[in-house]
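User: Continuing from earlier, I have the next pair ready.

Assistant: Great, send them over.

User: Here they are, in order.

Assistant: Folding the first of the pair now:
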Amino acid sequence: MGKERLTLGLLLRLGILLTTVYVCVHVYLDRSWRRTPAPLAFEHPIQSRQNLGQQSRTKRVSAETEEQDRSIKRRISYVRTLKKDSPAKKRDENREVPSSPLNPHRKTPRWHIDLEPWASESHSLEEEAKRFLSYITTPQVSCSPLAGEEAAQEGSKGTTGAWVVCLDPKYSLAHRIQSKHCRIYSFGLGVDDRSLERFLARSGCEVHCFDPSLKQPHLQQAEMWLHRLSVDWRDPSPAIVAQRQYANTKKLATILNDFGHRQVDVLKADMESAEWKILENLLLEGVLDSVGQLLLELHLHWAGFEVAGDDPSVVRYWFSLLKELERTNFRLFHVQNDPAKPHLFLHKNVLNASSAYTLSWVNTQWKP
């Protein structure tokens, strides 16, 4: 009995020992199997960090490249701007009469006219009209002598000499006529009375008359040049020009460039209610810096082409344009209304105002 118990005890202990060894070996092998891909698992983050480092370095390099590209582009655009300007500057330095009409001291073109304050808090038409009419009927500078009245009375019946120029020695036109270097631009639609133009042509001025109703593009007649062209406040669409093969309306800046003229001693314009938008364009683009005297017929019976707003706003806009003209050193020296025209002011009888006034300004700072 004792030997049997001893044998069973040893067998039991041996079984427990083998079981323990088996469990330990199993656990060891299981851990070793799980630990085997561990280096791969650890290598992947290392590679990711390397890739991230490479990506970050790549991003830094690309950012630096983009910044260099931007700076290069800026330099290129600046150089291109200089290249565009340099020929004009070289022409200004090397040629006595440059082809560009641009004044080197001209202000940067603007996009809109600054409106003057209202004439009164009521914003009434009567108050706006009173201020406007008082402004256009009060000469700001005196001028003697005036040229044009006698020529008009001699050359055409029924004319009253509304178109006049100032030949006062304190302004440049008189000296330009003496030196035979004056240039005249005259814009109109089917104008019959060209007595002032003929007078200035006989005085030795280079006279250009623009009329889109002419049959020929350019024609020399007596002492004057006639052109089938008119001034506008915008250039025509390129598609329209390609279709018609000839544009009969252009901005004054474009016409000056096309003709190779920098200065105009006298600019005369009768634009049949387009004068307000044309004057606005001339002011915004600074073209009037190249003009010595401005003769303009104003039509007041309606607002004018593409001028919107109620009646008081329209008159305020008119007044603001003329004040802008004054700020560009133009001063009114002559005004005359047309007695043959009806007394209509925006389709109304306001202060017995005429529907048409011819105004003459001189650029007091103009020195060609």
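And the other member of the pair:
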Amino acid sequence: MPLIIQLSNRMLVDWVGSYWFVLGRIKVLTMSEKTTTPCFYKAPLSNASDSQVRVFARRNKRARKMAVEVEQKEHLPSTQDHKKLGLPDIEEFAYKGANELTQCRKSEMDSDVTPVESIVASPRPNGESPAHWEKVLEGIRKMRCSADAPVDTMGCEKAGDTLPPKERRFAVLVSSLLSSQTKDHVTHGAIQRLLQNGLLTADAINNTDEETIKKLIYPVGFYTRKATNLKQIANICLMKYDGDIPSSLEQLLLLPGIGPKMAHLVMNVGWNNVQGICVDTHVHRICNRLGWVSRLGTKQKTVTPEETREALQRWLPKEEWVPINPLLVGFGQTICTPLRPRCGECAISELCPSAFKETSNPSPSSKSRKSGLNKKP
């Protein structure tokens, strides 16, 4: 009996010693290898059999995120690489159909950063007209009466204005496709080169090689992808519409590279059929700065141009749906610019809740700090 007790005590001592050894090893691993892959350690728990103790160390999310950002900065794909890498392109970034809002919220939930709500300056029920909107619109019209913005002479609706109706519709569609992520004067130049080479019809583009189209439309944004889309669109228009373009919004949206903004513009200009507001980045930005739009059922600013279009159409009278685009686009090109808006030159700054919040000049305090740093001792 004493022998059995002695053996049992010895086994107990061995087991306790192994237990504390494993705990010590776990502590060392979790302290020194937090950012490494999951670790495994094997230690004897008894003299009879071995068991495997698995230690899973969580990755450091902040370190992982910084590493990904550095890697992305060092390997930014060029425009030519987008097609090869299978990345989303041009209008595909902005339009994902009915699942767009759900995907956006899901990405916010999955991210490491807590999303911050951006609240419109003057919250109001959805569908209710914002205060003084007519006075604001009239003030913008007066500032735009000089017609000195690029959109006034080189906008998509100006493409092929001397051509017959059928050819002009196709020219407007081509101009809309090329305009995405591209300045108006660059798009206008590409359209003129296509016109001079007799390549502004579906038949001509269909019979031209893609490399020639690339050279003529360069340097529009994503010109490689747009040349491919242009060839496909020309073939579809020939096969399905006898060289003309689709006459419905749904059919236009089925064309490669054509999103809601383009489709509404083509319907308005090409077919004189107003089904919605053409909202680009300028209209999207300015409507949010003015507090004219908010996400449905919330007080948040709209996130995409498509959300802005839906919010704007809930209260803006239909007779304003067509002129609002060139009016605000030109205003955004000359006064309410994306960076450093010229609020000091704006005639409606008193009615704008965002006026002078994105100042063009540094504050006096920052100027004094800079001047103090530049002074020689």
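Worth noting for the second one:
The radius of gyration is 31 Å. Strands lie at 39-44, 50-55.
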